[in-house]
Amino acid sequence: MMDGEIILIDKPAGMTSFGVVARVRRILSRRAGKKVKVGHCGTLDPFATGLLILVSGKMTRKAMEFTKLDKVYEAEFILGQESTTGDPEGELTQVSDSVPTKEQVEGALAAFRGEITQRPPIFSAIKINGQRAYKLARDGKEVEIPERTITVYNLELIDYSYPSLTIRTHVSSGTYIRSLAVDIGMRLGTGAYCKELRRTKIADFSVTDAKALSDFGVEN
């Protein structure tokens, strides 16, 4: 290994981004015979899969440059229910038995294309007064995260078979797909949460060029 490198990993479900970093750091340090610095360029939720950009050595200085890049996701939303976390790891509550038509779903998606405001989920890594929002939320403390302006460059319907709604979206940095699911569910009046999420691209970096952890040499 030279002074540093960019490493593309296809993150598996059920693992944190920090867990991926720790495993890759172990492998690189073992190969180099010394401790190697490794960082990520934007997290994925534990339930999510797909592209993670890691940087090592002196390349870690450029990590922030990668975090600001646009991203492409594929996601499955479940209508009719809400989750306390916006994903399958939260407590689910039945909201509605109403079955929107495909035309109504298309209309709801259209409302979220372009520049929009979005409130990130309280169970997120955003820092509030120096502490992670998810830690405050888990401690039962009230968390108020301000809205932010993001851009949804493209949002297309891939498949709809109630209650399952599958979309592909190209978004700006800072966009939360869990929040997008919740907002779409609110607009439809059905409630919704993000059941599955996969990041396929970060700018020109593609998950098709990424390595699985097992290919990288990580053992379970």
Descriptors:
Pseudouridine synthase, 6 helices, 9-stranded mixed β-sheet, two-stranded antiparallel sheet, 13 strands, alpha+beta
Quick overview of this protein structure:
The protein is an alpha+beta fold and 220 residues long. It is 24% helix and 35% strand. The protein has two domains: 6-67 and 204-216, Pseudouridine synthase; 71-202, Pseudouridine synthase, CATH 3.30.2350.10.
Description of the molecule:
- The chain has 220 residues and is an alpha+beta fold.
- It folds into two domains: 6-67 and 204-216, Pseudouridine synthase, CATH 3.30.2350; 71-202, Pseudouridine synthase (2-Layer Sandwich).
- Helix content is 24%, strand content 35%.
- The chain is built from six helices and 13 strands.
- It has helices at residues 17-32, 63-67, 102-110, 133-138, 177-188, 213-216; strands spanning 6-11, 38-40, 49-56, 71-79, 81-83, 92-94, 114-118, 127-128, 131-132, 148-161, 164-171, 192-202, 205-206.
- Strand 10 and strand 11 form a beta hairpin.
- The chain is elongated, with a radius of gyration of 18 Å.
Global shape? elongated
Please state the second-level CATH architecture of the largest domain: 2-Layer Sandwich
CATH fold-level label of the largest domain: Pseudouridine synthase
The main sheet comes to: 9 strands, mixed
Number of DSSP helical runs? 6
Structure summary, number of beta strands: 13
Query: Span from first to last CA?
Result: 24 Å
- Written as H for each helix and E for each strand, in order along the chain, the element string is EHEEHEEEHEEEHEEHEEH
Number of domains: 2
Residue windows where pLDDT falls under 50 for at least 5 positions: none
The Rg value, from CA coordinates, equals 18 Å
Category by helix and strand content: alpha+beta
- At the first level of CATH, the class of the largest domain is Alpha Beta
Give the mean pLDDT: 89
Q: What portion of residues is helical? A: 10-25%
